[in-house]
Here is the input.
Amino acid sequence: MGRPQIESRVETLPYSWCADPAVAGAEREEIFRRSWQYVGHLGELDGPGSMFPTQVGGLPLIVVLDRDRELRAFLNVCRHRGTVLVNEPQRRGTIQCPYHAWTYALDGSLRGAPRSKDEPGFDMDCLGLVSAQVGTWGPFVFANPDLEAPRLDMALGDLPDVVAENGLDVDSLRFHDRRAYEINANWKIAIENYLECYHCQLNHPAFVKVIDEQRQRMEVSGLRLSQFPPVHPDAYTDAAPYDVSDSVTTAQYHILFPR
Amino acid sequence: MKFNVNPGRPNLSIGPLWPVGTDRTAAWYDRFFPEGTDEAWIEQMRIFDNQVGAEDTGLVEAVQRGAASGALEHGRLLTRTEALIGAFQDMVRTRVEPALDRHE
Here is the structure.
């Protein structure tokens, strides 16, 4: 018996959901700002005191390796007047605000605020950086501003096993390069385009020389939405856009819905 | 989050994508390879990947112009070929509808 086919409902979401600010606000709060997101990699941290700025769903964060080599994440916003604290990767013993020099220890506690000794009722203990959850899978670093959210392994689900089962050892990987971009479209339209290859024959002439989209497997597991297209047989003999003759014979394209 | 493994030598790209407006999306990704992977091969794959990405950007932006125009209320999915879109939209509904109901 073959694998049961996944079927969806017939109608799309209302198109108004691609233009309605109320929907966008709900998505921002319910999907993006309370979820685990990839924020960088361990190669960006060069010993105790190293840190890099990042973001989750538009919220600025800092990832820090503290003095005990414990990985920490904080909102990258000063408790004084809201300045972004860290603008580029750095290594130092404290986190100091560039605006008025409020200084935080690497565990996030406030250690110094100029002239605060003369300020009645100034409680240093209540003004530490706001913590976020942080975790790793192989070289990949993830963070979640929601301290009540389930741990990273719950959010990743079976993805690490699926990647490994398909022959990729993530611990063997080293960072190569980063690319940032923006698209003039609603985020859901961008994801939906990624989740089907129905458009590939007509629109991606090079891509369909590399992968055999008509033989691809689709899978939904928890919040993971995956496509596994095998290498197109002709790609080994014809002039494929690049050399595919190596160990990865099935591509993997996964969306992990934020959790 | 997107996770891509392209055919050929071991590789993986990973990165987030998030809305910066109803009609604008920001994204970035990091690419990883085992140490010592041939740079010429990486460059060939990067050109391939960027070409597919540029083709997709044009398609996605055209959907935005049509879908957000108000011309139609919704579209019609192919329930098998586009099954992952249906599953994705169910995930969105599950999170968003309760929040919209609370604000009504």
Q: What stands out?
A: The first helix of chain B runs from residue 39 to 67. The helical segments of chain B are 39-67, 83-103.
